[in-house]
Amino acid sequence: MSTSNTILITGGAGFIGSHLVRLMVNKYPDYKIVNLDALTYAGNLENLKDIEDKPNYTFVKADITDADAMQELFAVHQFDGLIHLAAESHVDRSISNPMSFIETNIVGTVVLLNAARSHWGDFSGKRFYHVSTDEVYGTLGETGFFTEDTAYDPRSPYSASKASSDHLVRAYYHTYGLPVVISNCSNNYGPYQFPEKLLPLMINNIRHEKPLPVYGDGKYTRDWLWVEDHAEAIDLIYHKGVNGETYNIGGNNEWKNIDLVHQLCDVMDELLGRAAGSSRELITFVKDRPGHDRRYAIDASKLQNELGWGPKIQAEEGLRKTASWYLENTGWLERVTSGAYQEYYEKQYTED
Ligand code: NAD
Ligand code: TYD
């Protein structure tokens, strides 16, 4: 596809979005990058402080479910392309409150598809890039990998809402010819991740010497990817991917939760100057997540073979970089965990 130069990134104040916005604003000084975000509990403009004054960057606070606002935004900016990350993203929250996931992840995506469809003329040179998750494929046993041909089998309200949005994006490709591309990525980790997710939650609890809540038997397996490797993959797929295609993105980096938490505890002990083994003593096995998917593992060979992508940061280095970032940015952690976070934490971890 042709090189687009006015790009809308939705959800750019969140975890992955902020890394993508930073990458694109710095890498493409001639583009106009518009970051649209509703600034929910998960969105934070502090994540983008270092680039907020760049001339090629604009922030718009808006909700993707607001159809009039999205139509107006498309009319004003004449976007060449869109990279859609805005979403409710946490599985546990989707179990306690599915409706906000339906609204943002499904309805919000259709609102954006409609805005693109009505403003993009004959669609030439345009691109609608939908960022999704490997969780749409359901769960794996001890062996095997998700490929782009794996049948969808979502099990949580979160993954069902993302699966639904993926289907709708594909439906707009087949029905209206909207130029779309989708990627499905494994678990990301790194700086600016909200401490409801496994690694930053554990890091924050280790700092405060609080219990480390491991769900079930701790043998659930995830494939972890350094967030900047994901942002690079998105940039590559946005520019080089083929319309109508799906690309799986993964780190080839599987960990059982308990092994990952052990590794993190050891790194934290070292960084905090605590006695070896002391953080491991905080581990507490707690009630399992309902419908907990046993194992995710991605086959990313299509992306590797067709577009030449591969992860650059390996697990040991990434874990250390992540732990160090949180310890160097305790102000950020304190600010995002004050207020509503306390209420969420109580409800999630102390109620039956
Ligand atoms: P996040 O929760 O950190 O950020 C989501 C962002 O979307 C926040 O800035 C939030 O304010 C914004 N947002 C939420 N509802 C909105 C609305 N109605 N209108 C406008 N903005 C809204 O999520 P993340 O981890 O950065 O994930 C980003 C995307 O990547 C999501 O689509 C998610 O499904 C996908 N994904 C995430 C992972 C992962 O490991 N985190 C893996 C694969 C795919
Ligand atoms: P999470 O970071 O919520 O990502 P996802 O559910 O999207 O994979 O969880 C990663 C894994 O860690 C998952 O198997 C659930 C588990 N987990 C815990 O054991 N304890 C926790 O407190 C959290 C948040 C997650």
Plain-language structure description:
By secondary structure, the chain is of the alpha/beta class. The chain is 43% helix and 16% strand. The chain has a domain at 6-192 and 225-251 and 294-312: Rossmann fold. The protein has 12 helices and 12 strands. The strands form 3 sheets. A 7-stranded parallel sheet has the order 3-2-1-4-5-6-10, sandwiched between helices. Helix 4 (98-119) packs parallel to helix 5. The protein is globular, with a radius of gyration of 20 Å. Bound molecules: nicotinamide-adenine-dinucleotide (NAD) and thymidine-5'-diphosphate. Residues 10-11, 13-17, 37-40, 42-43, 63-65, 85-89, 104, 108, 131-133, 162, 185, 187-188, 194 line the site of nicotinamide-adenine-dinucleotide.
- Low-pLDDT residue intervals, each spanning 5 or more residues: none
What is the number of E strands?
12
CATH superfamily assignment of the domain at 6-192 and 225-251 and 294-312?
NAD(P)-binding Rossmann-like Domain
Overall geometry: globular
Average pLDDT metric: 97
Compile the SSE list and pairings:
Elements: E1 6-10, H1 15-27, E2 32-37, E3 57-61, H2 67-77, E4 81-84, H3 91-96, H4 98-119, E5 127-133, H5 157-176, E6 180-185, E7 187-189, H6 198-207, E8 212-215, E9 221-226, H7 227-240, E10 246-249, E11 254-256, H8 257-272, E12 283-286, H9 301-307, H10 315-328, H11 330-337, H12 340-350
Parallel strand pairs: 1-2, 1-4, 2-3, 4-5, 5-6, 6-10, 7-9, 8-12
Antiparallel strand pairs: 9-11
Helix pairs in contact: 1-7, 2-4, 4-5, 6-8, 6-10, 8-10
